[in-house]
């Protein structure tokens, strides 16, 4: 489960320790005392070469990937032999580069995210020993991406931009009507008969992974699930425990909880993550200074102001010029929710809120369009083949039910439950209504929750973070407490999903668990973390405040880096953005890195830049060659060397030669 659609989470795993052709299966029973010596398992599995199996299955290179894609034709309803309908599900495999120890399968988040689209990026974050010894497997779950491509982008944007306030009976009625309209419009936009929707549940989807396991000939494998992927992984583990050698749950969902109970806990987690972020800012001199000393007090004022009166900003268009754009309280809560998932996104949120403190709502509006995947010029939805709101709600509304009776009765029950929550949460209580379309979805959700997962004889790592708002850390603690052979790894602060982000503490534990078959030396491990990345103060709004051209260019460099459209860029699509104080900047990928084109682009009033630049990834060198117009004029060449952290500017400015470095 998740709150609202949001970017890239993380990573993977499974690792096979036994095969149908192997007579000696490794012993994975719970040790009397968890010690490294007692739990190390490094058995190498021998079976037919993976490349040969993939060729027999008709595998071909996945588009723009190092993975080999295999398409399996599976029953639409694997539980009804009389139903002869079928659909295609695509799996991607990267064979082990060295001596193979097994297969690691990765269930990504959502539900609705494409595993195949993330495969290469995720793999690049792994320790090389993992790719050396394991076949890595990613997949697009049925309905997602190349496994169906179901979408309802237009209906989703309309739903997320609606008024989610529910403080009055009129607002509650309007929001219920909005949810009903979305449910109808989304199903229509998907373009499949409503009677097929029940076949996209998690319980149906895990049968596709089981079919793939059989095709690959592996008797056991290791399974890693992140976020929603932990729902998927736990469901598979409950049905096919004998086929798992190990399990890793990262950003864990407690499947025993009802939908309303889960969303109450999630709304509270979002609220407290926001509070913790703002309080951490107050304890940080650089951050607090940008809020006049009290970020939390400012957020109180901003939220109250937005509730009573939406604002209108002049938005700089990519084509040049300005357009009046509204920004509402619901928009604010959508942005805040979307940006609370990780240390980096919390930094971006704090800088946007700091800009609002000094009267500039533009960064928050930019974030809104990025988070909604809207074209900032036209406000039309941008196609995103890596995520599907349609699949998100279809899976959720199959897996969970919300009360009983008529839709009207269920809606009333949900609103009553929400009223009680709103009384205790000053902010972000709207998170509670994340699955409200399920009341009107044309499927019957599961009325009974799964029993507690014990995963007997399956060593299991449970990973979480205290600042994870989407899958509250208490969910993982609850799941861990019921496991037969469980190990809990918790990051203080941290992100939603903690493996594969470059944090040595969880990464080394997971890698040892997989590659060496080594359980952690203790049942519970605490990793140090932070609430947000190091704060970078906002630059002056007016060029007259810069001491010299080098300070002005460093400020422009900084503000460009934290520009939401660039910070969340996919590093593929050529993109043009309206600059904050006029002009435009275009960025695109090159063979060696990135290239930039600036046309009267100003990140501060009175300092408009026209010219070109680039970033050489191998050399770690950022350069700009620009003509300056505004308060003063000149021609400057600026560079930032990320190898040694030096900044240099040369040229002429205000009629004087310039040669400065820092």
Q: Rg, please?
A: 26 Å
Number of DSSP strands? Answer: 20
Biggest β-sheet, characterized?
A: 10 strands, mixed
> Which structural class do the helices and strands define?
alpha/beta
Q: So how many helices? A: 20
Relevant CATH superfamily of the largest domain: Alpha/Beta hydrolase fold, catalytic domain
Report the CATH C-level class of the largest domain: Alpha Beta
Mean pLDDT: 92
How is the quaternary structure best described? single chain
Which percent range fits the helix content? 25-40%
- Pick out the low-confidence regions: 1-45
Strand content: 15-25%
Structure description:
There is one protein chain. This protein is of the alpha/beta class and 662 residues long. The chain has 3 domains: 36-147 and 193-256 and 450-527, Alpha/Beta hydrolase fold, catalytic domain (Rossmann fold); 151-191 and 259-448, no CATH class; 543-661, no CATH class. It contains 20 helices and 20 strands. It has helices at residues 36-39, 50-56, 115-124, 128-133, 153-160, 169-190, 202-216, 228-239, 259-282, 285-289, 295-308, 329-338, 343-357, 362-372, 389-399, 407-422, 473-482, 504-515, 549-561, 564-567, and strands spanning 60-61, 68-75, 86-94, 102-107, 134-140, 221-226, 244-250, 311-316, 322-327, 460-465, 486-491, 524-527, 575-578, 584-589, 593-602, 607-616, 621-630, 634-641, 646-653, 656-661. The chain has a 10-stranded mixed sheet with strand order 1-2-3-5-4-6-7-10-11-12, with helices on both faces. Strands 13-14-15-16-17-18-19-20 form an 8-stranded antiparallel sheet, with helices on one face. α5 packs antiparallel against α6, α7 (202-216) packs across α8 (228-239) and α12 crosses α14. The longest helix has 24 residues, at 259-282. The chain is globular. The model is unreliable at 1-45 (pLDDT under 50).
């Amino acid at each position: 489960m998740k709150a609202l659609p949001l970017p890239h989470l993380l990573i993977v795993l499974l690792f096979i320790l036994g095969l149908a052709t192997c007579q000696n299966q490794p012993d994975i029973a719970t040790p009397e005392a968890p010690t490294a010596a007692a739990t190390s398992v490094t058995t190498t599995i021998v079976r037919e070469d993976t490349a040969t199996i993939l060729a027999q299955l008709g595998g071909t290179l996945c588009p723009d990937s190092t993975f080999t894609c295999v398409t399996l034709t599976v029953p639409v309803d694997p539980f009804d032999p009389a139903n002869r309908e079928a659909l295609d599900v695509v799996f991607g495999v990267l064979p082990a580069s060295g001596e193979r120890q097994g297969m690691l399968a990765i269930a990504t988040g959502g539900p609705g995210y494409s595993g195949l689209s993330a495969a290469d990026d995720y793999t690049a974050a792994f320790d090389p020993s993992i790719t050396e010894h394991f076949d890595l497997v990613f997949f697009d779950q049925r309905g997602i991406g190349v496994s169906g491509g179901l979408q309802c982008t237009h209906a989703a944007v309309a739903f997320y931009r609606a008024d989610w306030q529910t403080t009055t009976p009129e607002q509650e009625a309007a929001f219920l009507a909005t949810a009903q309209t979305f449910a109808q419009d989304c199903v229509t936009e998907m373009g499949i008969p409503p009677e097929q929707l029940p076949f996209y549940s998690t319980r149906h989807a895990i049968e596709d992974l089981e079919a793939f396991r059989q095709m690959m000939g592996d008797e056991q494998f290791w399974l890693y699930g992140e976020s929603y992927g932990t729902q998927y992984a736990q469901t598979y583990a409950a049905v096919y425990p004998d086929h798992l050698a190990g399990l890793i749950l990262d950003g864990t969902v407690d499947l025993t909880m009802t939908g309303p109970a889960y969303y109450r806990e999630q709304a509270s987690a979002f609220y407290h993550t926001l509070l913790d972020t703002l309080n951490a800012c107050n304890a940080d001199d650089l951050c607090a200074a940008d809020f006049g000393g009290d970020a939390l007090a400012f957020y109180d004022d901003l939220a109250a102001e937005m509730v009573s009166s939406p604002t209108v900003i002049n938005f700089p268009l990519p084509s040049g010029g300005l357009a009046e754009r509204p920004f509402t309280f619901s928009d604010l809560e959508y942005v805040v929710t979307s940006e609370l998932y990780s240390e980096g996104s919390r930094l971006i949120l704090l800088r946007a809120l700091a800009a609002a403190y000094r009267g500039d709502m533009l960064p928050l509006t930019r974030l809104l369009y990025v988070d909604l995947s809207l074209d900032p010029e036209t406000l039309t939805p941008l196609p995103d083949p890596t995520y599907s709101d349609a699949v998100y709600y279809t899976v959720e509304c199959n897996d969970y039910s919300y009360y009983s009776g008529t839709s009207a009765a269920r809606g009333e029950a949900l609103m009553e439950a929400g009223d009680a929550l709103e009384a205790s949460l000053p902010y972000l209580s709207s998170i509670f209504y994340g699955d409200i379309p399920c009341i009107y979805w044309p499927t019957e959700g599961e009325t009974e929750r799964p029993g507690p997962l014990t995963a007997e004889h399956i060593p299991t790592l449970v990973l979480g973070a205290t600042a994870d708002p989407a899958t509250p850390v208490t969910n993982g603690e609850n799941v861990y407490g019921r496991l037969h052979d469980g190990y809990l790894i918790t990051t203080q602060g941290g992100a939603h999903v903690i493996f594969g982000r470059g944090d040595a503490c969880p990464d080394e534990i997971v890698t040892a668990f997989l590659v060496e078959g080594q359980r952690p030396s203790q049942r519970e491990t605490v990793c140090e973390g932070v609430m947000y990345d190091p704060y970078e103060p906002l630059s002056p709004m007016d060029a007259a405040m810069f001491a010299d051209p080098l300070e002005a260019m460093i400020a422009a460099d900084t503000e460009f880096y934290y520009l939401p459209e660039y910070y969340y860029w996919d590093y593929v699509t050529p993109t043009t953005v309206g600059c904050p104080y006029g002009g435009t900047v275009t960025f695109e990928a090159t063979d060696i890195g990135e290239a930039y084109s600036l046309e009267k682009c100003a990140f501060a009033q009175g300092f408009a830049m026209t010219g070109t630049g680039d970033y050489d990834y191998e050399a770690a060198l950022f350069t700009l060659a620009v003509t300056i117009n505004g308060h003063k004029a000149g021609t400057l060449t600026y560079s930032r060397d990320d190898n040694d952290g030096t900044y240099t500017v040369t040229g002429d400015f205000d009629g004087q030669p310039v040669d400065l470095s820092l």
